[in-house]
């Protein structure tokens, strides 16, 4: 159970790394479109708005949303596996 928790934790870190890389790509593309505005990689909501108007068909924003959801959905089984890693499950025992 503990090993599975660490596998899920590794998946969360990998997903979060992909998420950050995708956000940086969105900011870089937005910087190319609007050179007058200074976009920050850590506050990227204005870059999202510029990117949405400049690239309406881009799958980049959908990928960001999907990666956020995957990060948060993976947290639930990770916490469950870590919480019950040392507790023996006795199904059917009274």
Based on the model shown, name its key terms:
single chain; 70% helix; mainly alpha
Structure notes:
The protein is mainly α and 94 residues long. The protein has one domain (2-83). 70% of the residues lie in helices and 0% in strands. It is built from 3 helices and no strands. It has helices at 2-33, 45-54, 60-83. Helix 1 packs across helix 2 and helix 1 runs antiparallel to helix 3 (60-83). The longest helix has 32 residues, at 2-33. The model has no long low-confidence stretch (mean pLDDT 87).
Largest sheet geometry: none
The amount of beta strand, in percent, is under 5%
Q: List the domain count as a whole number.
A: 1
Number of strands: 0
Q: On the 0-100 scale, what is the average pLDDT?
A: 87
Helix content: over 70%
Q: End-to-end span in angstroms?
A: 22 Å
Based on Cα principal axes, name the global outline: elongated
Radius of gyration, CA atoms, in whole angstroms: 19 Å
Number of helices: 3
Concise structural overview:
The chain has 94 residues and is mainly alpha-helical. Helices cover 70% and strands 0% of the residues.
Structural topology:
Elements: H1 2-33, H2 45-54, H3 60-83
